[in-house]
Each structure stands twice: as structure tokens, then as C-alpha cells.
Design brief:
This protein has helices spanning about 10-15, 20-25, 75-85, and strands at about 35-40, 40-45, 60-70, 90, 95-100, 105-110, 115-120, 130-135, 135-140. It has about 140 residues and is α+β, with helices and mostly antiparallel strands.
């Protein structure tokens, strides 16, 4: 299994505010919200190169998603479900860790707040360390 892209449902503000769109683009993600198809309440932006299923962030040497941190107040039922879905999950007192054969890692971390961190492997020195936030999701080039 490999995670190669994420779909985020965004408010209209993230589709129309030029400063937000520029912030995302300045991190190396060619975000074009007007190219997407949508319905009321949902709009999916096409963030793909002319090639099939090749993210165009690769043009900026953003190679892949390396780590996904999911912070939340997980119940025992939540933990059981996560461990059923990911059979190689390792649970300790404050987190559940999952590693994919691709080297990508998922962490479900106990926290009173709910948010997500997406860490990418970025070989572009100008973009390394840059980040942006959409709702409670933060994308970080590492």
C-alpha cells in the first residue's frame, strides 16, 4: 500500500482567496481550484500533471508523503478499528504506529485536539521547511 495523494474538502475561501492559493503554490503545490469538478458542498481540485496519476508537485522535487500524523481523542473502539484495518499496527500508551512497505508511516496520536500533519519528502532546498494549513490540516515539506 502507498499513499500518493490526499483529497481535502475545502471551503469556498480556499478556492477563491488569492493569498491562500498563492501560499499553497509557494510551497510547491500547483493548486488550481478552478480546474476541479464540484457539486454543492464539494469541489475536487485537479492537482495532476498531464501524465496519468503523477502528482505535479514532483516537478518541484516534492517526492512523496512520508508521514501522516492524525491527532485526536481516540476511544477504545477507534483503536480497535484502526488495528483491524492496519494489521501491522503497533499500539502503545499514547499512539498507534503503522508502517507501509513503501516506508511511509501513519501515526494516530492521542490528543485532546483534532488535527492532521502531512509531512512530505522534499529535495528542493527552496521549498524545504515551507508549510501551509487548510482547516485543521497542516502540510509540511521536510
Amino acid at each position: 500500500m502507498k499513499i500518493d495523494h490526499l483529497v481535502i474538502n475545502v471551503d469556498k475561501m480556499y478556492q477563491t482567496d488569492k493569498s491562500i492559493i498563492d501560499e499553497i503554490k509557494n510551497c510547491g503545490f500547483p493548486y488550481e481550484p478552478k480546474w476541479g469538478k464540484g457539486t454543492s458542498g464539494f469541489k475536487a481540485s485537479k492537482n495532476w500533471m498531464r501524465q496519468y496519476m503523477v502528482p505535479n508537485s514532483k516537478e518541484n522535487n516534492i517526492e512523496k508523503i512520508t508521514i501522516l500524523n492524525f491527532y485526536g481523542d481516540y476511544s477504545e473502539n477507534d483503536k480497535q478499528l484502526i488495528c483491524k484495518i492496519f494489521v501491522n499496527a503497533v499500539e502503545d500508551s499514547d499512539k498507534i504506529s503503522v508502517e507501509f512497505p513503501s516506508g511511509q508511516q501513519l501515526y494516530f496520536i492521542k490528543n485532546k485536539s483534532h488535527y492532521v500533519e502531512v509531512l512530505t519528502l522534499c529535495a528542493n532546498a527552496k521549498l524545504k521547511g515551507k508549510s501551509f494549513k487548510i482547516h485543521n490540516i497542516k502540510i509540511i515539506n521536510t
